[in-house]
Amino acid sequence: MKRGRTFKMVYLALLVAFAVAVHTVEASIPVPIPVPGAKLGLANVITLLTIVFYGYRSGLIVASLRSIIGSFLIGNFMGFGFYLSFSGAVLSSLVMGLFMILYRREKVSLVSVSLAGAVTFNVVQLALASVMVQNILLFRGYLPFLLLLAVPTGIFTGLAVTYLEKVAGRAGLHIEQSSYCNRQPIV
User: Fold this and answer.
1) 3-class SS at 175?
2) Is the pLDDT of residue 107 over 50?
């Protein structure tokens, strides 16, 4: 039992490291989209993969640590961008965790789970930005554009995690899935 917990902690530490690396690299890449704050959301691949393998609590931990450590490395800890990133990461992880219940019951796909997370991330960030700058017109003006951008990024993330889940199974990786999972663990 203790060995299993150690392996889980090691896997989670690796997932946090991957998420921080992707978050940091993504922050340094200029996105050729004329919408301020728009990102590809590639670090969400790691968050959703963590939720699939270890459940929403672990996904929430990975998303939170990714945002905190990544903001230290980027240099915006406790700044405007940090609050937007952290709040979006936490709430989108919770929404993806809720949608995973439907996924485990085979009602939706991982693409749907990812789309729900991407939309939540953008809505939360935009709502918080509107409150922080005290301009509700910001929310109304940018929401359609950010939702339009959430669709392809959410689809990409969902497809990437679907592929990675299959690859992990074929590679024989033992992944401890959460207790609400109806599927058999990958062995």
Assistant:
1) strand
2) yes
CA 152, CA 37: separation in Å to the nearest integer? 16
Cα gap 151→36, rounded to integer Å:
17
* Residue position matching structure tokens 């990812």: 114
CA quadruple 7, 68, 22, 144: dihedral, nearest 10: 130
Residue 9 has pLDDT above 80, yes or no: yes
Max mean pLDDT among 47-51, 131-135, 143-147 falls in 47-51
Contact 175, 59 (CB under 8 A): no
pTM of the predicted protein model:
0.81
Taking domain 2-170, whether its CATH number is 1.10.1760.20 is answered by yes
Task: Supply the pLDDT for residue 180.
Answer: 40
Q: Confirm if 153 and 115 have CB atoms less than 8 A apart.
A: no
Domain regions of the chain by residue span? 2-170
Helical (H) or strand (E) element with 132: helix 110-133
Can you state the angle between helices 43-54 and 136-170, rounded to 10 degrees?
A: 60
